[in-house]
Amino acid sequence: MKVNPSTRPSAVKLGFGTESGAVLAIALMFLTILAMLGTTALNLTGTDVQIGGNYKAGLKAFYAAQAGLEEARERLCQNSAYPINDNHPTNTTWTAFIGTDIKSQKKGYDSSNGNHIRVASLQTDLDYTVKITHLLDPTGNIVYWGDEDGDGICEKTTTSGPDMRNIYLTISYGAFGSAQKTVVAEMTPRPPVTVPAPLYVNASTTIQGSSTHIIGTNHPSCGTGDDLPGIASTLPPGSVTQHGNPEIVGVNGPDDIVYNGTPMDIQAMVDALKQSPDFSYTVTSATHTGMNWGTPTPGDTLQDALSCSEHNVVYYDTGGTDIRLSGGCTGCGILLIEGDLSIYGNFLWYGPILVTGSVIFTGGGNKNVTGTLLAGGSVDADVVGGNANIVYCNDAIDQGAYRPLMLLTWKEDMDKM
Q: Where are the domains of the chain?
């Protein structure tokens, strides 16, 4: 049988012709692109590592600068274990340095200058140098922090005085490797609480009981201080009433009550002091019994000043309600109450008590507040008898001197790096 050649199936060619060469070229091109991408990726990864390393070094330098700032805050405090003493508070050129001698010299330290002092850093693992000067106004006057107008709110002033505190311009230079960071702050010791009298009231008040004693003359054991009136009220005469022959004595003698006094912003005072409490409570109409925030030492009589070497800040947020303290509560430092305060039974407190609302000071037991009691609420503030004693004491008022300095301003300064 013959087969027609025209109907025979065509053979399939296998080999390396023109098409296979094109495929090889494309493959080589892709390999080249992949190699280039790999090289670029390696370069990008190396850059990322370098950027990350620089960022970490800068962050460590910043933390070092911040650590230097915190060391200055602690060492300028009155009760610091390693104090930096400012023996020239009115000297415009007084300067203190924290750091090594060589690095302090680079920041202006001159060991032959009697107005310059230098102390070694307490941190050996961190690299920082700190420069501290008195803050000056544009005309070269020293700027102080204090309550110049007696409303309880501190402000900057160029008026000096026993209750004014220097403001320290503090520049901390931190370093890590080749990275450098600088932070600048204005900081100041807290001035004493403004005290117009051992008892300040902003509402109608009743004082009763022959065993109630409110004494505005500075107690002899309380250091140097001016005598004050017994009671200061922002209201007109007649808003403070007496029953049962209580003793109220001050700089003007017996029954020393000053009316129409300067209104004080007790809420703002509490806000300024509550930032770093040692004890903080959030309560709603609660009773706390037998609390101990320090143990004052009583004087010979209940009319004598207490004494204490502890300095706590105790803060109560009552949410607009009240806190009742009973059963022998004691404390030393500053007691801050947002709301109303009721005191029952034995109670001893050394330092200022600030209450935004009303106060009831009653019940049995022996009670002594050495310092001041400031009540700023709009409701009645009744201080009722029962061996209730409020004794003015200048030494007890200045509790802020034992706290770390407060920051007035803070910034990272790129110009001083």
A: 73-191+403-412, 199-397
